[in-house]
Amino acid sequence: MLDNFYKGFKSGTDIRGVASEGVEGQVVNLTDDAVKKMANGFVLWLSDFSDKKPSELTISVGRDSRISGERIAAAVIDSFKKAGVKVIYTNLSSTPSMFMTTVDLGCDGAVQITASHHPFNRNGLKFFTPKGGLEAKDIEIILQHAQDNDTPAPENNGTVEEIDYMTRYSQHLCDIIKREVNAEDYDLPLKGFKIVVDAGNGVGGFYADKVLKVLGADTEGSVYLDPDGMFPNHIPNPEDKTAMESISRAVLDSKADLGVIFDTDVDRGGAVDSYGKEINRNRLVALAAAIALEGTEGGTIVTDSVTSSGLKEFIENTLGGKHYRYRRGYKNVIDKGIELNNKGEFCPLAIETSGHAAMKENYFLDDGAYLCTKIIIKMAQLKKQGKTIDMLLEDLKEPVESKEIRFKITEEDFRACGERIIADLEAYAKNEPDWIVADDNREGIRVSFDKENGDGWLLLRLSVHDPIMPLNIESDSAGGVEKIYNEFYKFLETTKGLEY
Q1: pTM for the whole thing?
Q2: R_g of the chain, CA atoms, integer Å
Q3: Alpha-carbon gap, residue 47 to 129, rounded angstroms
Q4: Which residues pair with 270 in a beta bridge?
Q5: Helices (DSSP H) in 148-259: which residue ranges?
């Protein structure tokens, strides 16, 4: 059983903690000692998983641009070497590229040092095998090893090889674009296009220099390509308003055909069309679905639970696919896509509105650079037909209003409280003649309202990790969100356990 110290590092399927000083009230807990114990835990777990001795393992190690990255990488590598592991150090790398080292380089496992879009003072460890990212139960085993100070038998003969894997990974993306665009000038399929990149000072700057420029694109006007772990310009996060305003401005200022934006470690991406209009959240899901379903006889698109009603109509009526709403959490969405395929139901795409997008054709790996690559390919193909990327989204109905309210749970056992409130709301909704409970929702409770009562829907769910209940509301009419919230407020007054 994990104690409170080690339990605090578990963040879904990752390990995360405070790695640098500089934020008041946040004490560094991701120390060298803790990291070395976690690295030992991964060696022991991977040894069992692969049925190899620690000294027979090859593990790659990479990091994003955070200021604590080099320190943590050194601690991880030190533990691996003492266990006799062959280490391949890729230095600054994207998270998806670390998985790809298990494909291209035959690594038994990979470790990425990242905390995604979280503040500069935080960092963490993300693990891969050739089968993909680890599950939550695997992280618990690794942390239990760390807590118990379990250590592989010392070999002290491990080796370290430093390689530039990002160049090889970039060439892989270049080859895909060349092949699928199949331009007259085969090696320069993006010649004549202006595409700008906003890397937010994470590790995504490679995409401008090692992919787009190489293929002939004009990338002048790109911003924040240089890695800087203090993230001085904006949070590297395609969900962040300031970040999206930044890439929209870059597109308009440079008169670009397209803009792409990544989070810190490039497992998420977003885009902006030539008019400066954002392609993220529902629009990103719609565009990715249009690309994934092209040339197929239907197919199922798995998304998280907060997608709009208009998106469901677009996937099912415009694209001829099926929409499978599932639980929030990118790993939940991806695992469901894999499960459906294994059961014989064709699912080419699993995507969360946050920008995590995993395609069947790409190992179900959530890779922001791969997603943007597919968007750019489609843009180039459409240009041959005299069309633009925004035309693919013409039939997508978007809400007039939307809002998210996050209610704090006041009871100590927040999960039990949240589950009780959802059950109470479901019972309440059944007694309200104008409340229509969705029959295809798999997280929380989703209720639709007709034009007279708000012309939209609400979704109440329990946060994956925190004592929070997010309430999402969308309406197709001005003033509809307020109407729906007022209806929900009547329920709030009948229940307890939420701060409002």
Answers
A1: 0.95
A2: 23
A3: 11
A4: 261
A5: 165-181, 206, 241-254
Task: Give yes or no for residue 464 having a pLDDT over 80.
Answer: no
**CA atoms in the 13 A half-sphere facing the CB of 475:** 19
Longest dimension (CA), the chain: 73
DSSP secondary structure, 40-77, as one string: HHHHHHHHHHHT--GGG-EEEEEE-SBTTHHHHHHHHH
Amino acid at 104: D
Q: Summarize the confidence of residues 294-303 as an average pLDDT.
A: 94
Q: Tens of pLDDT along 24-57?
A: 999 999 999 999 999 999 999 999 999 999 999 9
Of 225, 262, 266, 261, nearest in space to 112 by CA: 266
- pLDDT on residue 71: 98
Q: Can you state the angle between helices 136-147 and 32-50, rounded to 10 degrees?
A: 120
Contact 473, 320 (CB under 8 A): no
Type of residue found at 396: L
| d(C-alpha 106, C-alpha 126), whole Å | 18
Question: Closest Cα to residue 379, out of 209, 259, 293?
Answer: 259
Among 490, 468, 291, 475, smallest CA distance to 372 is for: 291
The Cα–Cα gap between 340 and 479 comes to 39
Query: Residue 122: which H helix or E strand, with range?
Result: strand 122-129
pLDDT digits (tens, 9 = 90+) for 161-174: 999 999 999 999 99
Is the pLDDT at 466 greater than 90? The verdict is no
Angle value at C-alpha 231, between 229 and 237, nearest 5 degrees: 110
